[in-house]
Design goal:
about 200 residues; mainly alpha; two-stranded parallel sheet; 2 strands; about 5% strand; globular
């Protein structure tokens, strides 16, 4: 059903659009080119949601509340317990685009630790949102996602300034230093609170 595709995208891009509208009303200015790239990043965020299979508040309600949900949750806090190198590699590769896009769109994130921190925040939010599901919330995923963000940054550092610097002045006029964090956190929270695939059954 087409709504199953459209609504998750709206819940992911919508908070970014609302934030931009509020900033415009307050007199903050950016460019259409910058906004387009922020939406490209948020489409990537939506794809990560679809791959990781995050849950929602409706899953918590279905399980009888927060306490039963936490009792039934699958959690691993012991590092390096995942089965196979493939799992580590895929988790790292999945977050490399984030590590590339952050410094590409925002000059404030042309620092490996700031970029890796955003990857860490994003990964922790995903793992937390997986608690109401049958999926494993795993410290290894957080570690590899953060590493992947860092590696994506290193790719940008090596080739970005030389091959992807067209219209940089227009692309990097941001609304605030916290802009990407606000987009990612609001997309995670909005999707967690508002979306349920069961609406479409």
């Amino acid at each position: 059903m087409i709504l199953m595709t459209i609504i998750p995208i709206i819940l992911t891009l919508g908070p970014a659009m609302i934030y931009q509208a509020v900033q415009f009303l307050w007199g903050r200015k950016t460019t259409a080119f910058h906004c387009i790239w922020t939406y490209i990043m948020m489409v990537y965020v939506r794809l990560v949601f679809s791959v990781t299979g995050i849950g929602s508040v409706w899953d918590i309600i279905e399980k009888g509340g927060l306490a039963p949900t936490l009792r039934l949750a699958h959690i691993n806090l012991v590092p390096l317990q995942s089965a196979g190198l493939f799992t580590y590699c895929t988790n790292a590769i999945m977050f490399m685009p984030l590590g590339f896009l952050l410094p590409y769109i925002w000059k404030h994130y042309r620092n490996p630790w700031k970029t890796a921190s955003v990857g860490l925040i994003f990964s922790v939010l995903i793992e937390a949102a997986q608690l109401p599901t049958s999926r494993l919330a795993d410290i290894d995923d957080v570690m590899m996602n953060t590493l992947g963000t860092f590696l994506g940054y290193m790719v940008w550092r090596v080739i970005g300034p030389h091959f992807f610097n067209r219209k940089e002045g227009l692309r990097t006029i941001s609304l605030s230093n916290w802009e990407p964090v606000i987009y990612i956190v609001s997309a995670c929270v909005g999707t967690f609170l508002l979306y349920s695939w069961k609406w479409f059954i």
